[in-house]
Automatic annotation (TrEMBL):
Record's protein name: BHLH domain-containing protein
BP GO annotations: cell differentiation; nervous system development; positive regulation of transcription by RNA polymerase II
Domain BHLH, residue spans: 65-117
Pfam families: HLH
Highest rank taxon of the organism: Eukaryota
Keywords associated with the record: Developmental protein, Differentiation, DNA-binding, Nucleus, Transcription, Transcription regulation
Protein source organism: Gasterosteus aculeatus aculeatus
Residue stretches of biased makeup (Basic and acidic residues): 39-55
Any one GO molecular-function label of the UniProt entry: DNA-binding transcription factor activity, RNA polymerase II-specific
Gene3D superfamilies the record matches: Helix-loop-helix DNA-binding domain
Amino acid sequence: MMLSPDQAEGDLSWTQSDPESLLNGLRSAGCTSDEPAEGEERPKCRADQPLSREEKRRRRRATAKYRSAHATRERIRVEAFNVAFAELRKLLPTLPPDKKLSKIEILRLAICYISYLNHVLDV
């Protein structure tokens, strides 16, 4: 279950199965179906209040369109990352040349190869 950063775990009255405690929780939030008496203003429900910037962002991110666009961007980012590793892999000498290396092995081998080339230049 996701909680907002400003919401305590104990503030979960809507998850309780007791209808009376649920109704009390709604009353404390000002969200009851009781009509106000004549001349009284109806208390505003949290849903009637303007949303904070963070809440707007959270709701926008919950849409299927946003998630789909985010997944596409992430897929493109990972693909570019993998292409960069493949290009780096082509520049590194290994025996056999077509040996499959993990990303960490590619990075470690690149560090060793750069150190070797620096040593060759110094001599």
